[in-house]
Amino acid sequence: MEPGPDDGIALAAAHRLVAAAERVTVLAGAGISTESGIADFRGPNGIWTRDPDAEKLSDISCYVADAGVRARAWAGRLRWFGRQLAPNAGHHALVELERQGRLHSLVTQNVDGLHHLAGNSPERVVEIHGTIREVVCLDCGRRGPAEPTLDRVRAGEQDPDCHACGGILKSATVSFGQHLDPADLARSFDAALSCDLLLTVGTSLTVYPIADMVARACSAGAPVVIVNAEPTPYDALAAAVVRGALGDVLPSLVQTYMAPDQERFGNT
Ligand code: NAD
Ligand code: ZN
Asked: Is the C or the N end of the chain the one with fewer CB within 10 Å?
């Protein structure tokens, strides 16, 4: 990605805005995890960009209707867990933001659990599209850790069913066609309305309703800073748009903060 003529100005504006904020709500997307080796959906190397057929795996009606789709999904989950994925500098920068006492909420569209693994407090994180680390029965609603079901797949079951009711099991992620948890959505929108800065990181801002956090933050008067490798539909609404790799940009954005007592000390 070549830097453009306005990139330095945008970065300086983003630094100023992030440094001045005390209640930051972050909306994270798949782009923050690409540097951990997890492909996004719509980026240049995205899963759907390379294989449009893979979209079926994220569609609940295909999943329910087709045992072959479920078998493919379970095989994919097994490979995913085999990779021992770790958080990267972008995730760690969001932990630093929390350590500074400035993270209001971290709403993530990611299902990979890497914000928790990096060290953000679970009570600050809203996993609005669920988590791959748990499994849920689509019939009786039972939910539990993914590992025991993955063991059954490792042992040869292609499409493991619910032991309690015989129903279809799926990872506890929200597929297209499934409803978001209303409490999580309300919390996310509230976090957009009550922050003093909305920072969006690594999201194409095309998945609704959560992308609407941007318009809500704007309507409440909070500036929006967008950090993403590619343009988003909300760039014109943002106070600053930074194009860059999150592993570079986020640590530098977060580190420019000067705690109030540091500032006083500096002024004496
Ligand atoms: P998206 O794939 O639509 O967009 C990701 C954006 O991140 C792209 O615009 C891309 O240009 C940008 N990007 C990629 N790597 C980057 C980097 N290193 N630095 C800066 N920008 C980078 O992702 P989305 O908006 O989150 O929506 C996709 C949906 O898919 C979400 O609902 C999410 O639940 C799911 N998803 C999750 C994961 C995950 O958990 N890691 C991975 C793929 C998809
Ligand atoms: Zn069940």
From this structure: C
